[in-house]
């Protein structure tokens, strides 16, 4: 048994090395359970027997201390595990793995006939410094097989976990039907049964051989070999009788050898099968990791190759974008000026027709100057509203279409840069473009638009700015000319004439007629002046200049944002290249780890096969 323990320790070491090799591949978890299984190779030996066959006394003798409860009444009320420990320790345990440290006094009280055993899953675990147990053997005391139903249920549940059964018979009561049925059942269910013929000291020396031969003949049909039927005396062994201490030593040896031959091989075989299965499971996983690494490496190299464009490429890209914006600005300015020139004549005509709706609270006869000023202000407001509506209805769709078309062409120019930026982790192409356009808008019109416009689509923000500025310039020109006309209308000579004519008109036609006459005069002068080539040329020129200026701002915004994107992309490419080199080193390390892992796993299988072969030879011998 000591050799088996050493073999398990060797196996555990090999498994630890394999787990370490697999750690970097993130596959170590697949071997942890196997490693734990190797370290937890427990031989669980259940001690069974009918009431008063001396079962607990036998356990005390095997452990060389009176620890298991023994009395004239049924004593063991629950499962008691005995394991090796450097110092004695007592634990109350349950099936959930909870262990509560206790005392020997509480143990003796709880595990006897007076103890509570309402839950069959609760048990005691005792650690004792018994060298024979070692790190592999767990001796289990069970309730008697012919006691009450609850105790029988506890024993039945324990047998499902046992590797071997140690059945205690009474030398002076051999051959009972209950004992034979118990042993036969255990042989079928567990396959590893050792029989202790206890109280052999009650049999005279000349009759002992006959009793043991009788037991062998009795149990041979059941499949129990004579080597597994041992004479024993718990009482004499506890009394340190030399003759019976030798029996105790032989019993220890027989239990260890039987476990090693009958159970150890099966345990190692199970580990070998699990190891072989593990190899099958993790090999494709390792290959998958390497395949992914190679794929990522290839993709990284491709993206780096694409990103390693010289400065001339980026310079050419910028020139293309500038050219696109310049042509778009020029085309938009020409289209906007033509549309506005056409609409302007209609606006002036509608303004003249709206003269009767102009309003003033002043008396046109007694306050012609104040009356004219108010009429002029009302005319100005009407004209501004007409211009604003015309820009929105006629100019905005044209500008919108031009800007959208410009952005589409720029997107084509920048498409390769977007792809490279996306490949090095700056986001997806749509996000990169959206961020660039937002930056362009902010750079070009940050002072002219609010946060809401910046958060809107870039095209809409540009259109709003263009339309607003055009409308502002037009309104400014209108204000200039209206004020000029009003000022001219209010010169002293004109006022004197207006007063004379107004007085006559007032006498013959009334106050309203005077107001209409002033409105008609102002409307005529406005229409004449605003329809003049001088005004139209100035408006058209202003529309062109303002539109082109705005597209210059767009061009500058694109230059800033493209430069920033190129810089960020280059930095990312450099970082990606560093990462790729690290990735390549890791790939090589993983390949080395894979070989080491496979080597160790194969070594484990070879080791297990060898040990199984040796155990089988011992068993056959």
Low-pLDDT segments, ≥5 res? 491-496, 502-510
Overall pLDDT metric:
77
Instruction: Identify the strand order in the major beta sheet.
Output: 4-3-5-2-6-1-7-8-9
Question: What letter string, H or E per element, gives the SSE order?
Answer: HHEHEEEHEEHEHEHEHHHHHHHHHH
- The portion of residues assigned to helices is over 70%
How many distinct domains? 2
Summarize the structure.
This protein is of the alpha/beta class. It is built from 17 helices and nine strands. The protein has helices spanning 2-23, 29-39, 55-63, 104-110, 149-159, 177-189, 205-219, 234-238, 242-307, 311-353, 368-423, 429-445, 451-455, 458-489, 492-509, 511-530, 533-620; strands at residues 43-48, 79-84, 89-93, 99-102, 123-128, 137-141, 164-170, 193-198, 229-231.
Task: Characterize the structure shown.
The protein starts with a helix and ends with a helix. Strand 3 (89-93) and strand 4 (99-102) form a beta hairpin. Residues 491-496 and 502-510 have low confidence and may be disordered. Strands 4-3-5-2-6-1-7-8-9 form a 9-stranded mixed sheet, with helices on both faces. It has 2 domains: 42-239, Rossmann fold; 312-586, no CATH class. It has helices spanning 2-23, 29-39, 55-63, 104-110, 149-159, 177-189, 205-219, 234-238, 242-307, 311-353, 368-423, 429-445, 451-455, 458-489, 492-509, 511-530, 533-620; strands at 43-48, 79-84, 89-93, 99-102, 123-128, 137-141, 164-170, 193-198, 229-231. The protein is rod-shaped, with a radius of gyration of 52 Å. The protein is α/β, with parallel strands linked by helices and 621 residues long. The protein contains 17 helices and 9 strands. The longest helix has 88 residues, at 533-620. The protein is 71% helix and 8% strand. Helix 1 (2-23) packs antiparallel against helix 17 (533-620) and helix 10 crosses helix 17.
